């Protein structure tokens, strides 16, 4: 029963590693991009961490152990940021972010679509499907508008 908790911790550590990569690489681009990326990841992480905490409780961890384990997965983010900074090319930050940002963005899009599209296909109520599609489009529009400013 606890194996699902440990698998969740491993996945969360890897997820946090990619978040660290994205945050550090985006700050290499500019402060504005760095702050926007950080805010986007924070908005994503708050419900994500609450859900992971619930998974750990369900897997048999007590509250204190679950909290400590969740905190330990945050080290993945620090390692990801350190990796991005250490991977800086001597030719400049442009070459570093040329592979880090597409890698992390692609990962985020893949995970989002793998989670969202099957739910959309199984949804019986067309109004709920339309709402989800509109919210996806709203998110894309916000990203485009932030990129243009």
Taking all residues together, what is the mean pLDDT? 83
- Uncertain runs: none
Radius of gyration, Cα only, in angstroms? 17 Å
Per DSSP E runs of 2 or more residues, the count of β-strands stands at: 0
Helical residues, percent: over 70%
Beta-strand percent range: under 5%
Structural class: mainly alpha
What does the overall shape look like?
flat
Number of distinct helices: 5
Main β-sheet: number of strands, strand sense, barrel status?
none
Distance between the termini: 49 Å
Q: Order of helices and strands, N to C? A: HHHHH
The domain count comes to 1
Keywords: Ion transport, Membrane, Transmembrane, Transmembrane helix, Transport, Zinc, Zinc transport
Family: Belongs to the ZIP transporter (TC 2.A.5) family.
GO molecular function, one term: zinc ion transmembrane transporter activity
Main location: membrane
Please sum up the structure shown.
It comes from Rhodinocichla rosea. With 149 residues, the chain is mainly alpha-helical. The chain has helices at residues 3-29, 31-58, 63-86, 93-122, 126-148.
Question: What report would you give on this structure?
Answer:
The chain has one domain (1-148). By secondary structure, it is mainly alpha-helical. The protein has five helices and no strands. It has helices spanning 3-29, 31-58, 63-86, 93-122, 126-148.
């Amino acid at each position: 029963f606890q194996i699902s908790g440990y698998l969740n911790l491993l996945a969360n550590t890897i997820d946090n590693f990619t978040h660290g990569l994205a945050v550090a690489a985006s700050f290499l681009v500019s402060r504005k991009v760095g702050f926007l990326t950080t805010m986007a990841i924070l908005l994503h992480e708050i419900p994500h961490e609450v859900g992971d905490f619930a998974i750990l409780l369900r897997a048999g961890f007590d509250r204190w152990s679950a909290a400590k384990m969740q905190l330990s997965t945050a080290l993945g983010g620090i390692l990801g940021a350190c990796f991005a900074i250490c991977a800086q090319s001597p030719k400049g930050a442009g070459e570093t972010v040329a592979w880090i940002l597409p890698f992390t963005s692609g990962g985020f899009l893949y995970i989002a679509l793998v989670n969202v599209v099957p739910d959309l296909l199984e949804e019986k109520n067309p109004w709920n499907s339309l709402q989800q599609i509109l919210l996806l489009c709203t998110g894309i529009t916000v990203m485009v508008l932030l990129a243009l400013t």
